[in-house]
Amino acid sequence: MNKSDFDAEFDRLLEEAVRQSENDIVVPDAGPSWTRMEKRLVRERRRARWMRGARWFSLAAASLLAGAFLFHSLQTTEAFRPMFEMAYKMKGGTVSMQIGSTDRPSAEGAKTPPPPDDWEEPYVDNRDLPQEGAFRRMTVTLEAAKEQMQFELPSLDAIPGDLTLQAATLHFSGGEAKASALKLVYADKGETPALTVLLRKRAFSAHAEDPDGQRFVTELPDGTADIEVNRGELNMIVRGSLKPEELGRIADGLLAKP
Length: 258
Fold this sequence. Notes:
CATH topology of the domain at 135-255: Phosphorylase Kinase, domain 1
Mean pLDDT: 79
Structural class: alpha+beta
Largest sheet: 7 strands, antiparallel
Low-confidence stretches: 73-96
Radius of gyration: 44 Å
CATH superfamily of the domain at 135-255: MucB/RseB, C-terminal domain
Order of helices and strands: HHEEEHEEEEEEH
CATH class of the domain at 135-255: Alpha Beta
Number of helices: 4
């Protein structure tokens, strides 16, 4: 037998031996082993849930003991009930919390009486463009302002000729198509603001109930002064560094019918 025949016979015998060994391998059934593992996993899950519940229970018990120690008695904690009454409701997998109190407050023992039921916070006039909950403002020319105001503008002829209009700002209250206030700022030749004329609805003023033409003069901390007057549905404030008599003449001009 030559070498090539020997190699061929060797390869044949080796393949036959491998095939024979594969046929003799027995694969065990994995079913019983998986059943035992599944039971073990179920026990582990149950144990984990029990441990979580025990941990939360111990935390709740510790909190209760701490509260009893701090307040000496559980009756003391009832003082918090008028402040917060919490009701928890489980519905649809969600938790809602309602905060409120069914106890009626008592004024017994109070040093000051409570405000009446119809009490309203007094209106504070900022003596400027209103600061409302909803509004918008727009800087325009004087001609455009005349067209967009809710009321007819008074005569501005009494304003000194050496002052020039620097800015005209319209104020629109929320939901209104036309402006309810107008602020005019006049500057001198050095472009320094010297005069402000505020025209607004009478309801914006703290002096809305006072008669037409009655003047309210206020001296301001910066050395300037202002004069406030009412005319019809208008409230008008003239403010500036001009002399008091000049401010008075401008106020007279605003009171005059255009």
